[in-house]
């Protein structure tokens, strides 16, 4: 049975001028399923890593210019393609910083859209219906472009599909209330026009979606009255006399969705697979008015299989990539994973019985930390012969409690009962079956904990978080509650498994961790790998190490004395030892801070909250970051240990942000002067390293060009001349 998993927020939305629009012009998949590019309706294209909800790059046209079609990614050349002001085609790479300095070409006619399907060459669709491949167009940008459409005919939707043998551009048009479908074949070049059957007076399709199945193009379209139709279009090239004819396109009604008394205004339907479609903007059959839902329907059995209420206004926009739905609503763009397993009639009607053997009830696999963190498969348990014992009716009922029953139990039962039932419930769940209600279960636990100070089930919450069915957007009060209860192990789990934690909450956790005394921190039970990593660092902190990564304590001492202008002060600096590689915090406290360093964030949103830290907290945090930098720079094995730990880049990013937020305070603080001198020496050591590498860059390039002899025997001497 299809399922909608718990979603998370990818990004906020630009405030819309027209409330009927989300201000998102398009979303396209980039190099893989974890990267997408989002084009807004104003001036920007942003590359996001979906799993981290983190922007990796952003490109903006100048003030007064507008992006007029969604950007696409050309996998053949690893380049982005977009159109500004209807006629200017822009092409750039990820490392291009200023979009205006990248390649651009002005064409002779207005462009409707650019499409790049499944690694094929980008195709450009003009507003009057002509289609050109990008390379052919750029060879002569001012080439004349024919008009395919008649006067007053306008394109409403378009896409591109790659079949087994050819590339197609498909678009629909509207002319005086009539709707047409154009199928443009690129190799060989031919176009065929179809007329869509009219639905009724004043009814125009709200959305279109196309996919390639069984040698046919499957066109899905939704009308305001809730009728969902499918039309099949053959991809074979038409005969000579067929190409000029307008053919009526037959259709089959897949669904008749309940719309209530009013017609739909902003809705969309897309294919998920052969038997399932996702619909947004259509009322839930059993929900009251004024509520917007995202639904999955089974077209074979005409049943609603999954639904999720969406907060805020829906705009009738929906995209699907790699089992994830992208939906703008309210002020956010959300990502909602989904699953569409093959359905039987029983499962579609919700009457499929879950068969549980006696053995599965008596044996439970408890996942290890390696299973949770690294996705390793747990070893299968050995079969255990169940004893035939009498059980009471109460025990039998407790073994069969559903999620809804456990949720009701949370409202009144004791902590011990709740923890027992949650553990039993999780042990009975199939790990491959996404559980949509676990988020509601966590919310019920948090709600009661907030309402009843005497109730707090840490054990139940720590069991729910690693299921990966929760996120901060699903249960926003969970992490603040853990901080309030000083449940730092639960805080660590949330930081580990939640990828959408707001910057304000991240800083609240960091402030709590820094303020925690080492004595109290040592009493905590934390994730084993995080503590083991710190034990490894601390055990090697007095080891003698040489020059690595362009840094050594000797160079550091020289750089410190060079940075001091006063001769007396310089003499004092020479007497001081090189930076101490002693951790300023205990290993448990450091393990908690390391989780913060690995949390996704936006620098612009994080900086204002960092400014609220006291100078003592900032100095302590910087000293710990200094310790990590020293260990990473002088011991190459510190990052090859296999433990989950912050990277050197993450450490340096946090150093830079702290200096940006508190530089004036640190300069005026006598306590921080040594720390700032050390940080300055770190920068000098890296500059020295890159300077030396630059001197031998030419020689290294020549070495890479040399052809090595394959057969050199057991011993040889070869002279290489470098210029």
From TrEMBL:
Organism domain of life: Eukaryota
Keywords, in A-Z order: Activator, Nucleus, rRNA processing, Transcription, Transcription regulation
One BP term from GO: maturation of SSU-rRNA
Entry annotated with the keyword Cell wall biogenesis/degradation: no
Nucleolar protein 11 N-terminal domain segment(s): 1-338
The UniProt record lists the keyword Hydrolase: no
One GO CC annotation: nucleolus
Gene Ontology molecular function: RNA binding
InterPro entries on file: NOL11, Nol11_C, NOL11_N, WD40_repeat_dom_sf
Localization in the cell: Nucleus, Nucleolus
UniProt domain Nucleolar protein 11 C-terminal: residue ranges: 410-723
UniProt main location, coarse: nucleus
Protein name per Swiss-Prot or TrEMBL: Nucleolar protein 11
Organism in which the protein naturally occurs: Poecilia latipinna (sailfin molly)
């Amino acid at each position: 049975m299809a399922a909608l998993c718990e979603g998370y927020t990818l990004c906020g939305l630009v405030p819309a001028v027209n409330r009927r629009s989300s201000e998102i012009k398009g979303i396209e998949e980039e190099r893989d399923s974890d990267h997408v590019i989002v084009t807004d309706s104003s001036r920007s294209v942003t590359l996001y890593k979906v799993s981290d909800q983190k922007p990796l790059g952003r490109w903006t046209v100048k003030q007064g210019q507008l992006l007029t079609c969604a950007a696409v990614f050309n996998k053949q050349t690893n380049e982005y393609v977009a159109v500004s002001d209807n006629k200017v085609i822009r092409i750039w790479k990820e490392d291009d910083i200023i979009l205006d300095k990248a390649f651009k070409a002005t064409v002779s006619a207005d462009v409707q859209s650019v499409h790049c399907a499944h690694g094929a060459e980008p195709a450009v669709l003009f507003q009057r219906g002509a289609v050109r491949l990008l390379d052919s167009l750029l060879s002569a940008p001012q080439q004349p472009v024919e008009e395919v459409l008649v006067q007053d005919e306008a394109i409403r939707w378009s896409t591109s599909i790659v079949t087994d043998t050819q590339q197609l551009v498909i678009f629909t048009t509207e002319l005086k209330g009539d709707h047409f479908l154009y199928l443009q074949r690129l190799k060989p070049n031919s176009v065929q026009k179809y007329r869509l059957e009219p639905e009724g007076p004043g009814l125009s399709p709200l959305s279109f979606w196309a996919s390639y199945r069984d040698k046919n193009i499957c066109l899905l379209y939704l009308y305001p009255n809730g009728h969902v139709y499918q039309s099949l279009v053959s991809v074979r090239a038409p005969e000579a006399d067929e190409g000029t004819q307008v053919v009526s396109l037959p259709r089959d009604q897949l669904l008749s969705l309940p719309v209530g008394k009013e017609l739909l205004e902003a809705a969309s339907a897309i294919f998920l697979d052969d038997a399932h479609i996702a619909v947004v903007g259509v009322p839930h059959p059993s929900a009251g008015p004024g509520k917007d839902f995202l639904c999955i329907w089974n077209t074979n059995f005409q049943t609603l299989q999954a639904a999720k209420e969406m907060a805020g206004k829906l705009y009738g926009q929906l995209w699907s990539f790699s089992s994830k739905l992208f939906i703008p609503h309210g002020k956010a763009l959300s990502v909602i994973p989904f699953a569409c397993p093959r359905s039987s009639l029983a499962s579609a009607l919700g009457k499929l019985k879950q068969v549980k053997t006696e053995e599965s009830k008596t044996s439970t696999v408890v996942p290890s930390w390696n299973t949770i963190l690294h996705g390793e498969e747990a070893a299968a348990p050995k079969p255990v012969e169940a004893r035939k014992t009498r059980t009471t009716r109460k025990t039998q009922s407790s073994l069969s409690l559903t999620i809804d029953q456990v949720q009701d139990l949370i409202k009144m039962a004791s902590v011990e009962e709740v923890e027992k039932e949650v553990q039993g419930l999780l042990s009975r769940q199939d790990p491959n079956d996404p559980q949509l209600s676990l988020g509601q279960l966590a919310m019920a636990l948090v709600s009661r904990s907030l309402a009843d100070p005497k109730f707090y089930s840490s054990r139940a919450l720590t069991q729910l978080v690693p299921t990966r069915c929760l996120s901060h957007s699903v249960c926003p009060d969970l992490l603040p509650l853990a901080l309030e209860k000083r449940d730092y192990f639960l805080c660590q789990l949330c930081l580990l498994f939640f990828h959408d934690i707001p910057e304000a909450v991240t800083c609240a956790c960091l402030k709590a961790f820094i303020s925690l005394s080492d004595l109290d921190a040592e009493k905590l039970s934390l994730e084993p790998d995080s503590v083991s990593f710190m034990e490894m660092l601390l055990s090697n902190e007095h080891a003698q190490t040489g020059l690595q990564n362009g840094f050594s304590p000797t160079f550091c001492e020289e750089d410190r004395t060079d940075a001091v202008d006063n001769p007396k002060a310089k003499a004092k600096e020479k007497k001081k030892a090189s930076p101490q590689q002693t951790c300023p915090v205990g290993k448990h406290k450091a393990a908690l801070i390391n989780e913060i360093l690995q949390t996704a964030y936006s620098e612009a949103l994080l900086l204002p909250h960092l400014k609220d830290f006291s100078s003592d907290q900032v100095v302590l945090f910087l000293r710990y970051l200094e310790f990590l930098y020293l260990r990473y720079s002088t011991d190459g094995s510190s990052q090859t240990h296999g433990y989950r730990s912050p990277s050197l880049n993450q450490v340096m990013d946090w150093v830079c942000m702290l200096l940006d937020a508190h530089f004036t305070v640190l300069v005026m603080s006598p306590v921080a002067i040594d720390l700032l001198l050390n940080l300055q020496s770190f920068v000098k050591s890296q500059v020295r390293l890159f300077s030396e590498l630059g001197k031998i860059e030419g020689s290294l390039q020549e070495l890479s060009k040399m052809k090595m002899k394959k057969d050199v025997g057991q011993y040889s001497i070869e002279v290489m001349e470098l210029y």
